[in-house]
Amino acid sequence: MRIRRILAAVIATAALAGLGLTGAATAATAQGAPSVVSPSECRQGGGMPRIDLPGNPCVGGTHDGDTVD
Predict the structure, then answer these.
(1) SS3 for 69?
(2) What's the first-to-final CA gap in the chain, in angstroms?
(3) 59 burial level (CB within 10 Å; 0-12, 13-18, 19+)
(4) How do residues 44-64 score in pLDDT, each as one tens digit?
(5) What is this structure's pTM?
(6) I want to staple 49 with a disulfide (CB 3.0 to 4.6 A). Which of 8, 32, 60, 68 is the partner?
(7) In terms of DSSP bridges, do strands 58-59 and 48-49 run parallel, antiparallel, or are they unpaired?
C-alpha cells in the first residue's frame, strides 16, 4: 500500500510539473516578434509613428517598437 501511495504522488508531481512547463512555453511564444501597425493604430495606442527612423517604429504607447506600415 505504501508503495502505491508513493507511486501516485510521484505521478501526480510529474503531471503537475509537465503542466508548468507547458504554461512557460506558451508564455514565451505569446510575446513573439513585434507586429505591424498602421500609423493611426500607433497614435490611438498613445505612440508616435516615426517613419523617419530605420525600421519605421512606433515610439511609445501600447505599440512601442512595432513596425509602422
Answers:
(1) coil
(2) 66
(3) middle
(4) 999 999 989 999 999 999 999
(5) 0.51
(6) 68
(7) antiparallel
